[in-house]
């Protein structure tokens, strides 16, 4: 919050915030954030369907695909994928879905990721994601 418009202009100009912010608008008590971005992890996607197109199809259930984790696009393992979606509601994602490829249906588990330290992924693969002790995104246990 700025005391007045001259202070707002000074801060925006001095720190070149226009390079980082899409726009700056005056706050209002009725203002809300219409959507949020979350990372999802999916287990059970078959190797022959491992593609950005498949991830995009999966995310359409909840919102729009924003990006796919580079480790998912060039995996050392096909145990789980990780992608970001922009969604317009607050409920946390933890669902089983059926992915149909031709005449075969594959059960997939999709969970929203959270920041935690030193835990195993609980989506379905049990990958140890906290062995370095650094902050790591892993599946939520809720």
Q: Could you characterize the architecture of this molecule?
A:
With 142 residues, the protein is an alpha+beta fold. The protein is elongated and about 65 Å long. The chain has three helices and six strands. Strands 1, 2, 3, 4, 5 and 6 form a six-stranded antiparallel beta sheet that branches. It has one domain (36-139).
Compact description:
This is DUF4283 domain-containing protein. The chain has 142 residues and is of the alpha+beta class.
Distance from first to last alpha carbon: 35 Å
Number of strands: 6
Helix content: 10-25%
Low-confidence stretches: 115-142
Q: Could you tell me the mean pLDDT?
A: 78
The shape, in one word, is elongated
Number of helices: 3
The proportion of strand residues reads: 25-35%
Radius of gyration (Å): 19 Å
The helix-and-strand class reads alpha+beta
The description of the largest β-sheet is: 6 strands, antiparallel
Tally of domains: 1
Which series of helices and strands comes N to C?
HEHEHEEEE
List the helices and strands and how they pair.
Layout: H1 5-14, E1 36-43, H2 52-59, E2 63-68, H3 70-73, E3 80-87, E4 94-101, E5 104-117, E6 135-139
Antiparallel strand pairs: 1-3, 1-5, 2-3, 4-5, 5-6
Give a quick set of tags describing it.
disordered C terminus, elongated, 142 residues, 3 helices, alpha+beta
